[in-house]
Amino acid sequence: MQIKYLLSGGAAAIALSLSACDTKTDAPATSAEAETPVEAQGLPEIVVTDAELEGNPFRQEWDTPYGVPPFADIRDEHYMPATKKAILELRADVDAIVSNPEAPTFENTVVALDTAGASLNKVLNVFSNITNTDTNDTLSDLEAEIWPMLTRETNAISFNEDLFKRVQAVYDQRDRLGLDEQDARLLELTHREFLRNGAALSPETKAEVAAINEELSGLTTKFGRNLLLSTKAFKIEVTDEAELAGLSDDFKSALKVEGEDKWVLTVDRSVYETFMTQSENRDLRAKLFDGYRLRASEGEYDNGPLAIKIAQLRAKRAELMGYKSHAHYQLETRMAKTPKGAEEFLLRVWEPGIERAKEERAAMQDMVGDEFQIAGYDWWHYAEKVRQELYAFDDNALKPYFELGAVRAGASDVASKLLGVTLEPVEVESWNPDVTAYDVKDAETGEHLGLFMADMYARDSKRGGAWMSSFRDTSNVNGNNIRPIITNNLNLIKPPEGEPTLMRFDEVETLFHEFGHGLHGLLTQIRYSTFSGVDGPRDYTEFPAQILEHWAGAPEVLATYANHYETGEPIPLELIDKMNAAATFNQGFKTTEFIAASLLDLRWHMLTSEEAAEITDAREFEQKVLEEYGLIPEIEPRYRSQYFSHIFAGGYSAGYYAYLWSEILDADGFTAFRDTGDIYDPELSAQLKKWVYESGGLREADELYRNFRGSDPTIEPLLKLRGFSEQQPSEG
What average pLDDT does the segment 655-680 reach? Predict the structure, then answer.
């Protein structure tokens, strides 16, 4: 088990990268197995009995198509005993490495660690996915128990002196071992992670760091739970249809409660953005706007104090580890290298972005005149009106051409032409009836590459946003070739039974984006799960997803899938031209809200331990930071602190800027395709497949990009695509 442990705490951030090997058949567990020697690591005794494991699906071979979990057989009560048993097995695996009387070798130490804990991986991959897509109160309570428990185990491995001595011994003789590139990379990353997790610290400091890690695990889990509960708790019920003036018929149908003359508004992102854009009801827009931006900011779900405490603990831990701040620690191995490097990059785009936003605000104010002052809850609505006026373009005119099934087919076609893979629909058991599954194969050889499962619709039990994940990772150790089970999750509004799912174009881009992540996980040709699939620094791993977005709107691609869902007619060329002409419209707003959140993230995590200790009010700190950068009051950061789950409940702390950094790469990379005159240029496609989608974390990110592109990226394509010029003056 290689710990790709992001030192952020919490379920998502623990990021245990365990072996992807199939679970071996074991004898039933008994309480005697709790006697694995753990006293030296200070771990609590774990007891699990035969009775607790009786009939537990996680203790059985999964004789299912593609090895998918038997979802119908897995119940909430199975997770804890299976986790306990798997932890005991992990402890035994690690103890076997440490107590091995033979001299440390690459195989008996580094590979053994990479492949340890297979049964734990089996449990956690299911648990972490289900708690994101179909959670309930019981599972939420289990998260609060299981993730801190796992933190203790990863602490024990990170701080196991005898284990680290063996790794160090192998590392010291690395030049004499004759390792191939993948072996050498595994050794390098394993050694580096031990050092970065604190293996060389004093015993006293290790104990402090371990305590912080465990506390963070509980806090970040609670942060995510508060946000989910707060988001689901907010609803606006509308009983007078006249209040829904401006909404499209299909959107109103999706909001309507079946069998009642009632419509329900929520703050799920798809509902929120669509309503804020379409609604003519200013008062109702203001209510939904406040509902969205004030989530998890008061009462029992208030995340403000949690954000402060998380930032303080991260700052303290960084200090103990010898770093100025958590951001300095996090960025050390990323492309930006330092917080200053990330901030300077963001400000290069912020300057023209904020100036464009001011122009956009002025255009909207001109439209409404003296009737009222444009406010934050007006921006989406009047930006769309200005866009329609300037470009005679209504985004709703696009939706009939973007039916979900057709969009999926278009994404699959791109994957086939660009990367040489096919997707064949298959019937497999899934965690929800809405899930669809596909067997992904190499188009030339027919080789199975992995199973792809897509869960597209929002529901109360599912967290918001869009993401890629996996139920099984890739590995190929000792000839045991394990291919991945990859998932994509969106939160589209589910239409009434029998009606099509019509998508906004930004939702189409999101589908292509997550599919890009999925392909990164599916195509990997790395034998070790430690750095297979979606691996690398945060400011690189968004690149394989973001570059695929460019194909979504390319005219030659739209021609293959954007057909009217009723008539079958292809999307008119003039509509594509209008869409492209309007593409840079409102980029001031989009750029500013994103960078505001990115700067806020950096500033939370650039705090020294002493500075963090002085923060007493999260909103006050947030406002001070944003005022310093000159954010205009009509624009909110995309994520305010109390619902910024990327950084306080996920793995993006000091790394939210990564999306924009990766945009340098994707803009530069797609420009290379455009410059050839063929967006499927065979030579570039082959390099993209080899060095990006297949290579995982085989080399450092900048080297992987250069191998694909032939040169380092430049920022100019990014600015051009956003319609900016870096030479625009700033008014401060």
Answer: 96
Question: Quick one: 570 and 461 in the same domain?
Answer: yes
CA angle in degrees (0–180, nearest 5) for 366-371-377: 80
How far apart are the C-alpha atoms of 537 and 542, rounded to whole Å?
9
CATH number of the domain bearing residue 470: 1.10.1370.40
- 33-76 pLDDT, tens digit per residue, is 333 334 445 688 999 999 999 999 999 999 999 999 999 999 99
Give Dmax over CA atoms of the chain in angstroms.
83
Start-to-end CA distance of the chain, whole Å, equals 50
Residue 332 lies in a domain: no
* 139 within some domain: yes
Q: Are 525 and 421 in contact (CB under 8 A)?
A: no
Residues 191 and 58 in one domain: yes
CA distance 352 to 591: 9
Residues 204 and 254 in one domain: no
Same domain flag for 257 and 217: no
Residue 166 contacts residue 194 (beta carbons within 8 Å)? no
pLDDT of residue 392: 87
Question: Which residues make Cβ contacts (< 8 Å) with residue 204, sequence separation at least 6?
Answer: none
For the question of residue 509 being annotated catalytic, the response is no
Q: Check residue 41 and give its pLDDT.
A: 57
Owning domain of residue 208: 2-226
- Same domain for 74 and 41, yes or no, is yes
Q: Check 403, 514, 622, 663 and give the catalytic one.
A: 514
* Among 716, 717, 663, 676, CA closest to 545: 663
